[in-house]
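Checked the freezer inventory, then went back to the computational side. Two predictions to log before the end of the day. The first one is the construct we discussed on Monday; recording sequence and tokens without edits.
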Amino acid sequence: MGAVRSRGRALGRLSSLSPVARLLVGSQLLFNIGFYLVVPYLAGHLAGDLGLAGWVIGLVLGLRTFSQQGLFVVGGTLADRFGPKPVILAGCAVRVAGFAVLAVATSLPGVLAGVVLIGLAGALFSPAVEASLARQAEPDRRAETFSTFTVAGEIGAVTGPLLGVVLAGQFRLACLVGAALFTVIGVLHARFLPPLPAEHRGEPLLDGWREVLDNRVFLVFALGYSAYLVSYNQLYLALPVELNRVGAGEKSLGLLFALASTLIIVCQLPVSFLVRRVLGRTGALLIGFVLMSLAFAVVAMRPPGASGAVAFVVLLIVGQMLVVPQAKGLVPALAGERRLGTYFGVLASAGGVAVLVGSTLGGALLEHGRVAWIVLALLPLAGACVLTTLARSGAFTETPKGRT
């Protein structure tokens, strides 16, 4: 009953956010509808329609994530320099182009061009949105604000795969629908998103990078957090492989993505209430990473049928719900409340590099079955060790002065 009341209060908080914050939360919903309409089905298209090998598919998926996560630092820096609105609009235009290219691509070079454009688009608009939301939120309520942001995004993430189920087997049509949706999103943002101020207009572009690279506590934090991004990316690579192994079809993938999103929609706000009242920030981070590790360990035990895939999704998503809002809420404090676009960008870029390497190696390892899942189970444990060490050093309770 307390969790239900907490969810009601948190949903009510949405109406108390500033108009800009509400727009940013709504943006995340629309972005995810367009994204999840296409990307969860990319691996199946590459394997079934184009006949690519497993390691090539892993490389393509890793490159998509790297071109987004890895280039977040560029988008964040541009948002700090020029303000978020032009960067968000540019991201929408680039994603339209990426979906259009992917729709007509019949060979590996065309696919690579499409996924790079799709990733680059996210690298432009995502750090601009996150940094703006962090500035709009009250410092002591940032984790809750990001929880609401996450819920809105997952409503879009559950809608996208379900639309993808309707378009199952028509990947090119799904790409064109996604391109049309992002065209509409761009028009809406051009009309209703106010020109928010650029925090570091006129300063040299590389100043922000130098400041972040001098913040060694933040860099260690980003390294630990990247284990989450590598683990989460396995929804697009390892999960389809597991479903194929047990004889489940493409529609099962869409339903599992819908399950993941539904869990977050229903449980994210009660989980945030639990973290605030019981676990605390450090406890949430530690338990979240351990649950992610268990997700891979369960599949390594090879349960019959699709039960292992279902357990994998549930454990991974519960771990995500514990980790992500707390980690993103920590970024402004670790950044000393400066250059948030660049800091959010570097956080994602570190994960992007890790995902590029991890997906390529993981795609090859998955051909060896259980060994891959055991190796993947070790990654979240490593992330837990890094973040726990930082917590014990007091890094999460003291605000750095921008540099360490």
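The second is the one RB wanted added to the comparison set:
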Amino acid sequence: MLLERPKLFGNLTTQVIRAGTCTFCGACMAACPMNLLWPAGEQPTLVGACALCEICYYQCPNVEFSKEDVEMFLHNRTSRPDEPFGISRGTFVGKATRKEIQSQAQDGGVVTALLAYALESKMIDAAVVTGRDSKWKSKPEVATKYSDLVKNAGTKYTPSPTLLGVRSAIDEYMKTKIGLVGTPCQIRAVRRIQTSPLGHSRLAQAMTLSIGLFCMESYAYDKLIDAYVTSKGIDPTTVTRMGIKKGSFIAWSGENELLHVPLKEVDAFVRNSCKQCDDFTAEYADISVGGIGCPTGYSTVIARTEKGFELLKNAEKAGFLELRELKPEEKGYIKVTNMSQAKRLRKAIKPI
């Protein structure tokens, strides 16, 4: 009888990185017990002699991911055909009530408001969010106070190794109850770690709250920012906000538009891994939030787990949010459903 060969970083290199499906979530790097995996561009790389422990392989959400196992872990059941964007306990339209959040955040500022309440109520003792440097290169940031959340609010549109931020919160900040914000692929990484037979226990236990962002795709930094934005005569350091609105990609400096182009013009910069993703609404999060299906200045919010639903309602009760139910017959709900179906169809017809 032949023994199965160990699953090592070399397997991830072959099956994920070279195959173009690495999402740069940071899970393998965060879990490496020898700290031998580090970012190189927008992918992990081995910087020393591998210890052959197999841990990195079994954290990756792009190998051996079981949708059914994760749904049972979160909900004690699997999703039904009549749940068009995953299991939920309620869908809402909402916005933050605090003006400083509204002025800094994307859409309704719901994510920042939820994290602010979670910190204040001691549900979490740190939040891992996506920050950026002066040239709009995304990076994970550990937020331990309200001002950190407000400072890092807003969407960045290029990938960040969020799970490395979780490792930093544990090792450098000594935090044990961590909330994180991530795109669907990053939320998949959280659940892979929490359900894997070789899941990293410290990471799994510390990740207390997961807030997922609606996401159709992200863009390669070197192509979108380094090449394209600068080719338009725009200094990235002058950009204060970016957004995707009504089929356009827009960059602002304060209230002034620096760039406003059809979204199709930046399609060539979409990362290959995004074309293999079929999850638009971050179905495995505790709460999912996005700017589709709601009026300007608001967010669509899907409460998925019992924990997520309780957080949402408690934040509303405490005055951090205003909410109303989004019903299945409303245009906004239908739009979210259609976008979810469109992303699934894109994966089906556009394999790498």
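For RB: The two ends are 36 Å apart (CA to CA). Residues 32 and 186 are 17 Å apart (CA to CA). Let me know if you want it refolded.
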